[in-house]
Design goal:
107 residues, alpha+beta, SH3 type barrels, 2 helices, 5 strands, Preprotein_translocase_YajC, cell membrane, transmembrane, transport
Length: 107
């Protein structure tokens, strides 16, 4: 009878460099940052600056599409005149854009 002796499995070679293993993930995160996160942060910063610069007499459009002239500026709210003697209070953050002066009279 022959005896069989188990042999150890051959070494699988050296382990891959951990940096090379995570390199695709790091590159993917970098691409996502520059294509999605950074532009969104830039838009938010521009919107905050626009809202903080609002003053009485500015012509604005809200997120809901209502256009009017700013009558009063508060800490968190604005009073916007949307028609003669018709005023609404809106949150400052709901202003989507500031129109050039005279835009409402032209329409």
């Amino acid at each position: 009878m022959t005896s069989v002796i188990a042999q150890a499995a051959p070494a699988a070679g050296q382990a891959a460099n951990p940096l090379l293993t995570f390199l695709p993930l790091i590159v993917l995160f970098g691409v996502m940052y520059f294509l999605m996160i950074r532009p969104q942060m830039k838009r938010q910063k521009e919107h905050r600056q626009m809202v903080s610069a609002l003053a009485k007499g500015d012509e604005v459009v809200t997120n809901g599409g209502i256009a009017g002239r700013v009558e009063e500026v508060g800490e968190a709210f604005l009073t916007v005149e949307i028609a003669p003697n018709v005023k609404v209070r809106v949150q400052k953050g709901s202003i989507s854009q500031v129109l050039p002066k005279g835009s409402l009279k032209a329409s």
